[in-house]
Amino acid sequence: MAETVHPLSDLPLPTLGAPSPHLAGTEFELRLLYYAAEPEDSLVTIHFIGTYAMRWGPPNDERRGELGLAKLNRPSEIRGSTWLAGLIRAGQLESGGEEDCGLSHFCLPFHDSTLDVAADGYTFERRRAPIHEEFPDLARKLVK
User: CA–CA distance from 131 to each of 21, 33, 37, 45, 115 (Å)?
Assistant: First the structure.
């Protein structure tokens, strides 16, 4: 099955300039905080439910275009994911395939990096507090 990109239209777009993504996590839970494009100065917190794996790094926005990944210009779900299939093949998931394991591959493109998460799902909310106040709250939610 070929990879297909399905935009997550419910998730707000990261700001183009400096979305300042911050991550906090445990072995099975991941929370993300970033600046949204609209409304200006609003924050988005995403709670990935049943997190199995994540990777964060390249490509950045310019390299995504060079690699033909221009469709990854907003938060998306990648169906038929080769990354998720690789996790399954490596024996890290006891399942017959991507559909059977209940996980989805979520991709969040930022200006300087890309975050990929294999999880059961997510919830999100918008916030207005400054990022230096919001991030400690995000981390506290992980230990409760």
Answer: 10, 8, 15, 11, 19
